[in-house]
Design brief:
The structure is a single chain. It is built from three helices and no strands. With 68 residues, it is an all-alpha fold. The protein has one domain. The radius of gyration is 15 Å and the shape is elongated. The termini are close together. 6% of the residues are buried.
């Protein structure tokens, strides 16, 4: 893997981990960003994080398989 690929995957996995591990800060950030209260449940934010993490892993595995 090249360094730019590692940085890209790390960024997207970090975003997924932020969603999974700190869902309340995600909700606070989006409330601040939209200038109003965002009505999200932490369970939904965590589920989005898990789906995002699975997507990144599947895409990375498929990219590595194509290189061979």
């Amino acid at each position: 893997m090249r360094i730019d690929e590692i940085i890209g995957v790390s960024f997207f996995m970090g975003f997924a981990l932020w969603l999974i591990l700190l869902p309340n800060t995600v909700i606070k950030f989006y409330s601040w960003f939209h200038n109003q209260e965002v009505k999200l449940k932490t369970r939904h934010v965590r589920n989005a994080g898990f789906f995002w993490l699975v997507l990144v892993i599947v895409l990375e595995i498929s990219a590595l398989m194509k290189k061979k």
